[in-house]
Design brief:
The protein has 328 residues and is α+β, with helices and mostly antiparallel strands. The chain has helices at 3-40, 51-56, 68-73, 121-131, 142-145, 163-171, 176-187, 190-203, 225-235, 239-245, 268-271, 313-327; strands spanning 93-98, 104-108, 114-115, 137-139, 160-162, 222-223, 249-253, 260-264, 277-285, 289-298, 301-310. A five-stranded antiparallel beta sheet has the order 2-1-11-10-9, sandwiched between helices. α4 (121-131) packs parallel to α9 (225-235), α6 (163-171) packs across α7 (176-187) and α7 (176-187) crosses α8 (190-203). The N and C termini lie far apart (114 Å).
Length: 328
């Protein structure tokens, strides 16, 4: 071996010593880290957690509790039915309920979301009752006169009319012109009023409900029987609504020729003289079919019925209420 070879071999031996020491130190540090992780109960991100670790994970978020107002309005669908009734041609959805306790007595598809036509005006009336005073006057704008469908039909453009007359026109003949006039009066535009309607629906816990207009002509106005029953309970707590919806006919002072506005109620129970009827609202479009929310008070009890897409809401409501008062 040459002297150069001996020199190179000596250098390799001198370099190998520090490298081995460094490797040993790294191995020692790795062992200490693993020991610490094990002591703390940690685990590798790719490995399954132990049962204890799985228990320590945060629980899933619970649903938001209902506000006291929403809880008071809600209808209890969990009770067994007080009676049974099958129709040869049933409504698409329906509910019979006790207005005071909120207990459901009979139900069919009570959570099914459907078009509700002019039952939309129940929320319009609620906001008017909450946000205005009975002595206010409403200016009739061009927007109100550009309505389609049912209407009061005699609103004088540019004139200011009593707000209570428009509330009657909204709830008795189901005037779409009255709905628009009231929406613009309360919020400045129908679009802003509709946003308020949806916000109020959320506050009341009406989870099936969505509005796209103040009058309900469009199929985008949707709700379910359970929500409408809850809204009926809220409506009937408002004196200004309650005093209107019990009338079969109203004759009101109004700034038109003759000075009087004659308005008839569309409620088939009131029109047919069903005993104890005190409200509430009808609706009809081709998409929604015939709809009814009716309230009847008899022998100290107040019961409500909701029918959506009924072939004959007056007849079906009478059958349901007759049984409910006997057996409910």
């Amino acid at each position: 071996m040459t002297s150069r070879s001996v020199l190179m071999g000596g250098r390799r031996r001198r370099h190998r010593g520090p490298l081995l020491a460094l490797a040993a130190l790294v191995a020692l540090l790795a062992a200490l880290v693993a020991l610490a992780v094990s002591a703390l109960g940690g685990h590798d991100a790719g490995s399954p957690a132990s049962p204890a670790q799985a228990t320590a994970s945060p629980p899933p978020a619970s649903p938001q509790p209902r506000s006291p107002e929403a809880a008071r309005a809600a209808v209890d669908l969990d009770e067994p039915p007080a009676f049974r009734l099958r129709f040869r041609h049933p409504p698409r959805a329906g509910l019979v309920f006790d207005l005071e306790s909120g207990k459901a007595l009979w139900q069919r598809n009570a959570r099914r979301r459907l078009p509700i036509a002019s039952l939309t005006k129940m929320m319009t009336a609620q906001l008017v009752a909450e946000l205005t005073h009975a002595r206010e006057r409403v200016r009739i704008t061009r927007a109100a006169l550009g309505y389609r469908g049912s209407g009061v039909g005699r609103l004088p453009r540019g004139r200011r009319v009593p707000i209570e007359a428009l509330l009657h026109g909204l709830l008795l003949p189901s005037g779409n012109d009255a709905a628009i006039a009231l929406a613009v009066h309360v919020s400045g535009s129908e679009r802003r009023f509709v946003a308020r309607m949806n916000r109020r629906a959320r506050e009341l816990g009406l989870t099936c409900t969505r509005f796209v207009s103040s009058h309900g002509l469009e199929a985008g106005n949707r709700s379910c029987s359970a929500d409408l029953a809850a809204l009926a309970r809220v409506n009937m707590g408002e004196y200004r609504i309650r005093r209107v919806v019990r009338k079969k006919l109203a004759v009101l002072r109004f700034p038109i020729k003759g000075g009087r506005l004659w308005l008839s109620n569309t409620n088939p129970l009131l029109r047919g003289g069903y005993p104890g009827t005190i409200g509430l609202k009808t609706g009809y479009t081709e998409r929604a079919g015939r709809c009814l929310v009716a309230v009847v008070r008899r022998r100290g009890r107040t019961l409500g019925v909701v029918l959506l897409g009924s072939p004959d809401p007056g007849r079906q409501a009478r059958k349901l209420l007759n049984l409910a008062f006997r057996r409910g």
